[in-house]
Amino acid sequence: MRIDLVALDLDGTLLDPAEQVSQRSRAAIRKSLENGVRVVLVTGRGVDMPIKISKDLGLNLPVICCHGALTKDFGANRTLTHLPIPLQYAKPMVEFAEREGLSLAIYLEEFFWRLEGSRVYMDDMNGPAWKEAKTFGDILHQAPTFIRFLGEEAVEAMRREFGDWPLNFHYETWGEFIECAVLSRDASKKNALARFCADFQILPERVLAVGDSRNDVPMLRWAGVGVAMGNSLPEVKQNVRYVTASNTEDGVAIAIEKFVFAPSVAKRPA
């Protein structure tokens, strides 16, 4: 069956380690658009990077951000879906982290917030999408989109204290660094993409989804064609039917070329 929509994760998938999109992937996306195939970004990032990349690639669809908790129509500057963590859960978690001195970031009103003087784990934490607060109590007056526990100590403490709460917990490993994104129970990439496709009357079997992380697996299994990147963790590859090349070897382009433009080979792994 033909593909009507391509859903792409960013980090470790469409983006290479230098956060660039390869020329071959650009060409495959451009050809998809020219042939009437929609392309949407589905990422754990906040809105700034996916909007920038969407504009750069000429995409005119909303972006699915924050692990599926936020869908933004950047053309109209309008929020389509927002599923924040209820304050009844967010406040105790944040207060616990601050009291215990755990590394934490809060995504609120489309900015990441950290405490003044707190540890910077990644270069982008010094970017324009990040702000600092003296205390989290100064800013946490409404439900946050999601919360990030940063580093092994913070993640393990959070798991012990709150792991049985009715929320979504996404654990990710980046080399030796580990983090956990905490979201509303209803927020996920899969759910956000399913809502998105329902709005456009696109059947799941006509969706190609490509990703590399644990939080991508439900989305990849929901899509008619789910493809894991070659650089994915083994547990991701084992749970998805197809595997393409890595994000340094044009894995996204190869998947699009095979499943969108060469459907006769779609029965074979990418």
Tags for this entry?
single chain; 270 residues; alpha/beta; Rossmann fold; Hypothetical Protein, Haloacid Dehalogenase-like Hydrolase, Chain: A, domain 2; 2 domains; 6-stranded mixed sheet; 5-stranded parallel sheet; 8 helices; 14 strands; 24% strand; globular
Task: Describe the overall structure.
Helix content is 29%, strand content 24%. With 270 residues, it is α/β, with parallel strands linked by helices. The strands form 3 sheets. Strands 8-7-6-9-11-10 form a 6-stranded mixed beta sheet. The protein has a 5-stranded parallel beta sheet with strand order 2-1-12-13-14. A 3-stranded antiparallel beta sheet has the order 3-4-5, with helices on both faces.
